[in-house]
Structures are given as C-alpha cells and as structure tokens.
Specification:
With about 120 residues, the chain is mainly beta. Strands 1, 2, 3, 4, 5 and 6 form a six-stranded antiparallel beta sheet that branches.
C-alpha cells in the first residue's frame, strides 16, 4: 500500500527488546482539508534507517504493509491490533525547499563527433 502526506513528527529509534528495534513517524494525510488525519507508521530493524533523511514538513510518499494481530490479556479478553509497517519512503519535496524536477536534464549533443559509425 502507499500514501502521500506531510511529515508531522519523527521519533528516535527505540530498542524494544534485545533483538527488536523500532522507529515511528507520524504523517499528516489530508484527504479532506477540514479534517486532516495523523497516521503512525513504524519502521522495524534495518528499515529504521529509512527515516534518517526525513524532516518535519517534508512531503513524502510512504510505502507500507498493513499488519493485524490478535492479543489475549490475562483475563482471557481478546483484542486486535493493527500496525502500518513502513518499508520504503520517498521525499517528494523538502520543507521550505523547491521540489526536485521530475525530468532529466537534456543531453548536450552539440559536442558529439560528426563521424560516428552508427547505421541510423
């Protein structure tokens, strides 16, 4: 799944257990400008590094997997939890900067040799 939004907050990496580290990011998603949504994504293990280069205010495209799992407490009551696990993030434009062009600069063909041997 993927979604576009604006970085609202980036949290530091947390060592959850000896073998698990996690980092969270909040993305402001504005489908209806009157009621913006604040979505929490989590990056786990080596994907925590994907959030090193994002800053508050960056426009981003987040690629994630939706996960769900049951949990039973000590009294036997069953609950369900959902999480959105980030696996890729693209910065579309940085906060306060102009967006990068979406095209490649034209090649300078004026300096190409005249005697090429291409058949076309």
């Amino acid at each position: 799944m993927e979604i576009k939004g604006k970085i609202h907050e980036v949290f530091p990496t947390a060592q959850v257990t000896e073998s698990l580290k996690k980092r969270e990011v909040i993305v402001e998603y504005v489908e209806n400008p009157q009621y913006p949504e604040y979505l929490k994504f989590e990056a786990i293990q080596d994907r925590c590094n994907l959030l090193d280069n994002v800053k508050v205010g960056d426009d981003v495209e987040v690629f994630f997997n939706l996960r769900g799992r049951p949990w039973t407490d000590k009294t036997g009551k069953k609950s369900y939890f959902n999480s959105m696990q980030l696996w890729k993030i693209n910065v579309l434009s940085g906060a306060g900067s102009s967006p990068a062009p979406e095209y490649a600069a034209p090649a300078d063909i004026s300096s190409a040799p005249e005697d090429d041997d291409l058949p076309f």
